[in-house]
Design a protein that fits this description.
15 strands; globular; 24% helix; 10 helices; alpha/beta; two-stranded antiparallel ribbon; 18% strand; Glucose Oxidase, domain 1
């Protein structure tokens, strides 16, 4: 795909048409590319467990996160409902010395490690599979493709593409670096890893490692390495089930067009039907993969089945 930086609308329209998966799995489909992740693919993924070592790929959910209020996104607010102090003072009203603690959390569903659901992004008022956006997501939530439909299928063969190590300096890509399909393929080849139908692909840029050294800065919405708009063909052609990155927005920022906002999202979610993860912590897993030379693993990353949600927090677990 060529990139005309002055024509975001035309480029998005052409890519949406060229890479559309509308009706591929029928009129009523609610899973998009997760349809590629079938039982055989899960058996293949489960067979990759050989050492039994596991990695959480989630950032922490706390007030020290990166959010700064853009579109009312805040960091999680954790509040105790009952505490050890209440129990020690006998304020809980339980008999025979029984005491306990309870807590509550308030947060946007996409404030930290998360999945973007199929109802998250629209293209000119069209949601996934060509449905009218106003009939899909209302004030009552996503009535059609709510994230709860994905609570069971997101488990299978995970593949790490450590693009930061493969082509970056000191294992990290600079902000504004656009990762093309050629970069993704070259990284897979350098690792001796194949990527194909039904895989859950994790792309490490190294940005999270950098902000942990230097502070959050503009991590939530600012400049970042990420996927190029031109990678849409790779995302469609490989028939992967899902993809996640260690960055806030998945695609390169600033975006590659003049006067555009997240154009790859506008193709990948409503047209390709691709499940996208953001702000995943891939550092410990990447270190282990670099040490043993194995970049594939069993991965389970179920979203919380929040009825009607267009995104969900997740604690992905990779097992090697």
């Amino acid at each position: 795909m060529t990139l005309d930086r002055t024509d975001p609308e035309g480029s998005i329209a052409r890519a949406a048409k060229a890479y559309s998966n509308w009706r591929r799995w029928g009129e009523d489909d609610v899973l998009g590319t997760l349809n590629f992740l079938d039982e055989a693919k899960r058996r293949e993924g489960a067979a990759l467990v050989w050492r039994g070592v596991s990695f959480s790929l989630s950032q922490r959910f706390d007030m020290d996160g990166p959010q700064k209020g853009w579109r009312r996104r805040t960091n999680p607010v954790h509040t105790m409902l009952d505490t050890g102090t209440d129990a020690a003072l006998g304020n809980q009203g339980f008999p025979h010395g029984f005491g306990g603690a309870d807590d509550v959390i308030a947060m946007p569903l996409q404030c930290s490690t998360q999945w973007d659901g199929l109802g998250h992004i629209f293209d000119y008022g069209k949601a996934w599979n060509g449905r009218p956006a106003e009939q899909v997501v209302t004030s009552e939530g996503d009535l059609v493709t709510g994230i709860e439909h994905m609570a069971s299928p997101v488990a299978g063969r995970g593949v790490l593409l450590d693009v930061g190590r493969a082509i970056g300096e000191n294992g990290e890509l600079p902000d504004g670096f656009a990762i093309t399909g050629e970069h993704l393929t070259a990284s897979a080849c350098a690792q001796g890893t194949a990527v194909g139908r039904g895989d859950i692909v994790l792309v490490r840029t190294g940005q999270l490692a950098r902000v942990r050294r230097e502070g959050w800065g503009e991590y939530a919405g600012g400049p970042a390495p990420g996927l190029s708009f031109t990678s849409a063909g790779w995302l469609h052609g490989t028939e992967i089930a899902a993809i996640a990155t260690d960055t806030w927005g998945f695609e390169v920022r600033p975006n590659e067009f003049e006067h555009a906002f997240q154009p790859l999202h506008q193709v990948a979610i409503p047209s390709i039907g691709l499940l996208i993860g953001e702000m995943w912590d891939l550092e410990a897993l990447a270190e282990d993969c670099a040490d043993d030379g194995v970049f594939e693993f069993w991965l389970t990353a179920a979203p919380l089945p929040i009825t009607g949600a267009v995104g969900s927090p997740v604690n992905p677990i990779a097992v090697k």
